[in-house]
User: Fold this.
Amino acid sequence: MNDSWNSGHIPDPDLLLAADGELPPVRAAAIRDHLAECPSCRLRDAALRATMADVVQAQHQDFDSQLPSMEMSKSRLRARLARAPEKARPRHRLEWAAAAILLVGVSAMWYGWAARRARAPEVEIAPTAAWTPGSVSALTRDAVCSAPGGEAPSPVVSASVAQEVFRRYGIRNPRPRSYELDYLIPPALGGTSDPRNLWPQPYSAGVWNARVKDALEDRLRTLVCEGSLDLATAQRDLARDWIAAYKKYFRTGTPLLDHVAFVKDRPWE
Amino acid sequence: MLISPADSYAPPVPLEEEVTDLFEQLRDPLFRYLLSFGLSVPDGEEVIQEVFLALFQHLKNGKPRDNLRGWVFRVGHNLALKIRQRHGGPPTQTENSAIDGSPDPEQQALYNQRQQRISAVVHALPRQDRACLALRAEGIKYREIAEILGVSLGTVALSLERSLTKLSRVHER
Assistant:
């Protein structure tokens, strides 16, 4: 694909810079003029742009499905910002402050994260795709809807599975009744007790907590069983981003008042 | 010249709100970059939280506000480097988020053969070329890429040309 100016064509690096808007206006205009007259350069320009577009698309397809819920991440950031020191430091200490923040951040990431989690159970925890992608059985809609106790609390998770889930999320010595070991896809919608379908959800602290999710689970099961929602869609929406699913199915940006006090599944003890 | 009250006064935006707005704009692009860098999802999430806490302090301390996007990516890149150094060895591949480990049918359908080949070529690129390409794919300008990666502008241009030449061979097939 390489040509040079000597050949009378625009070299690839210049085509790239022009496509990315990185050239000074005069040079960009010269390239535009040349492209208007030169089919060969137009072809290479189109190929480069198409390749870059493919890269952008591939990056989205590779990673977008793994991104945790934006609402959860934002809530977590807000909680941490609220705990940030109030007073600004004097300017001459800024470099030291920035270095300290980074150092503390990295150290905390590796040595203190678990401890912080254990000390601050009120912070909302998003189910991360790597540890909790969701897991479903092969139950059909009819089997799900005809199962007795669909509206009953989800089965209690065994102690060994609970320990495994807490360990994955770096929570040591969780406080009893602070969390619900929540099924990302509830058994009432075909979810299994596999640890990959579980994560420690703060029981009532924070905005997007276990009670709000329980309300969503009931709503989805009702929609599935009355035939207005496909079971696979309900499972997929929960697995992808349960908060987005809540907003979608309740048509609201924030939890409804009734749901903040909704009680169904029991907290972990 | 008279200045109207509307021109002379704009209510200050609380710093927390400003940082949260930036978080909304930049989290996904930065997260994709960190994952392309080889970080796991939990590590990526933690890095992002630390980056925006550092940004909060940065702004609170009256540091420059120009090109905050570049600043965010640069700090994220440096933190990711430290994590990778701690892990040692090649970057780990992140897991798929699909239910029961199998790809989502809708997403799988979108993965046509060409996209898979593109991904394969990208993953096989040298680390720095991959980083340049991933940053460019997130709309980062050449000069910003150079600052983030600590290389020259010419290195960025050459790296992108090299990568796109390899990728365009896939495109031509």
Notes: DSSP finds nine helices and no strands in chain B. The mean pLDDT of chain B is 80. Residues 15-36 of chain B form the longest helix (22 residues).
